[in-house]
Amino acid sequence: MTTQAADSLIIPIKSTNVRSHISAPLWLRASFSAAGYLAPNLTAAVAERLFFKTRRSVPRPGERDVLETATPSSIAGMKAWSWGDGPAVLLVHGWNGRATQLGRFVEPLVARGYHVVAFDAFGHGESPGSSMSLPDLASYIRQVSDELGGLYGVIAHSMGGAATALALSNGLQLERAVFVSPPSDPRVFLQIFSDALAISDDVRARLKERVERRIRISMESMRGNVIAPSMRVPLLVIHDRDDKEVPVDSGHSIAEAWPNAELILTEGLGHQRILRAESVTNVAVSFIDAAKHLMAAA
Question: Which contiguous run of DSSP H or E holds residue 1?
Fold first, then answer.
């Protein structure tokens, strides 16, 4: 490693990509707390529906400008956009995110000869649906890759990084990957979610069982440091020291466990502004492009 410096209910989420800051109304917390003792199985069932429920976020001013030069399409049933020609590089948003959040990467990638593709996952942006899971997003990435005839690289933000890692463990082929602010342990989300609703330990255990039964994989097996050691795709992790939504330790743990991964730390950019920083865009695009030049030299 190299270091360079219920369906009608929506829980308000301050973060657009991870569940690190969830504030549930007091009445909802009281309801879940009481129901957990009276009907723990039913409470876990309702909590499961909320756990997977997505919330569409409003784009920042000017964020959608990048779509003016895009070719819109539908990929695997999701709204998608593409720019340029050449090897395909996929931009992957995170939980409650949207394709346009990664718009700053489009122009420099196209300028270097890449076909850039971005999509709104089901339950996000302009795509249909109202729920998603980490394995779902991993499956969407693989479906997009199949429809495009393969991917050259991926630049993914937050949960998009975790989903890309899971997709790689399930056979996705890439030359290079960049994870910006990636979470490393999905169990943390479950704990934060449970705390927000004042769910008891008993109900949380039942919820975990229901979640794992639904996604057909254990949360432990989706941890970044469990997946990373078997990976061979060159990876660059970019994480901000001041990220209050996905702590920088998460990026550290993934980079340390991933063979020959590089880690770049920023300061003062947090979890969202890091996507709009020119320095981050430049280093990410240069990392993706490096493999092409290495192959040409060989």
Answer: none
What are the boundaries of each domain within the chain?
A: 1-57+75-298
CA dist 202 and 209 (Å) reads: 11
The domain defined by 1-57+75-298 folds into Rossmann fold (3.40.50)
How many angstroms separate the CA atoms of 281 and 274, rounded?
A: 9
CB 176, CB 290: distance < 8 Å: yes
Q: Can you give the pLDDT of all 298 residues of the chain as single tens digits? A: 444 543 333 333 333 344 444 567 898 889 999 999 999 999 999 999 999 999 998 899 999 999 999 999 999 999 999 999 999 999 999 999 999 999 999 999 999 999 999 999 999 999 999 999 999 999 999 999 999 999 999 999 999 999 999 999 999 999 999 999 999 999 999 999 999 999 999 999 999 999 999 999 999 999 999 999 999 999 999 999 999 999 999 999 999 999 989 999 999 999 999 999 999 999 999 999 986 655 554 4
How would you write 204-249 as a 3-class SS string? HHHHHHHHHHHHCCCCHHHCHHHHHHHCCCCEEEEEECCCCCCCHH
Starting at the edge strand found earlier in the chain, the sheet holding 2-4 runs: 2-4, 262-266, 235-240, 176-180, 153-157, 88-92, 115-119, 78-83, 71-75
The SS3 of residue 275 is helix
